[in-house]
Amino acid sequence: MASSENPSIDENLTEKPESNLILLVNRDSKYENDDNYDAMRSDLEDISVNIDNGREEENELFSKEMEEQTKKRNLVLMEIWNSEVQYYKGLIILEEAFMKPLKNCLNTPQEIINSKTLKVIFSNLEPILSLTGELLVDLNNRLFYCKEKTFSKNLDVLESKIFVQFEEFLNNIKKSESKEEIKLGDIFCNMAPFFKIYSTYSMNFNKAIQTVSFEIEHNINFKNFIQDQILQEKDILKDLSFQSYLILPVQRITRYKMLLEDLLNKTTKKQEDFSLLSRSFGIASEMALFVNESIRQNEMFLKMFDIQRNLNNLNE
């Protein structure tokens, strides 16, 4: 039996009209006749309006945050494209200014280095250049809705393309016109198996640099060729050395890792691109680790080789 000291449920509601949530759940007809009901209903409507207004403010804030996130993500996309074009230009310069002239005079009276030395210095540059061109076609078509099948190797055309498309992309970002999610994860995932060609180049790099140093010291024709090319092509070489261009493919895998990580950080888990981007980043990270380890092991081997050679010279 309920004690007279304990108030009934009805008394609770009468004494505490601020318990609006209870009223909302227990909306029986007997409360319709309460003198306080109209006031309570008005309070509930005010609460509902305040909740709706709060949600609108939250949605507006969320929308602004997403818009800002999209802009930041688009800037990373543009950095990926622009850096790939600059890298492609560097490879073209390496091929056109140095490799091709040396290759064209093989087995002629004007030969500067033999085919074996040429292979040691430039390794598998040509397939890397071809792969980079294919990647640029995919990036270009995805970012700018083009339908190109090849990417120009003409440096003047490249400069013009960079300027026009870079300006167009930045203008779209400023106007907030580029709101559609642009996905790159699939492109890098599809290219990932071919990135293994970088390991060959990287493993050979230390030997390539040693060969260049040896040829410059002992082959006057090679030394003069490098110096002449640097002078003649100074406008496109931008005061960079021959060796600075040779190292570009070695640096690129690490650069891919950094760019993909940046893009991944600007991509939410709910976005479609997140899964493939995560996979691409993982592959790039493994490749960067493998390349760095290959270089380290190759350096150790060359040092041991030099030590052994010096010991042999002492014994003689």
TrEMBL record:
Domain of life: Eukaryota
Domain DH: 72-294
SUPFAM superfamilies: DBL homology domain (DH-domain) (SSF48065)
InterPro entries the record matches: DBL_dom_sf, DH_dom, FYVE_RhoGEF_PH
A Pfam family matched in the record: RhoGEF
Name the UniProt record assigns to this protein: DH domain-containing protein
Any one annotated GO CC term: cytoplasm
Organism listed in the record: Clydaea vesicula
Entry's Gene Ontology molecular function annotations: guanyl-nucleotide exchange factor activity
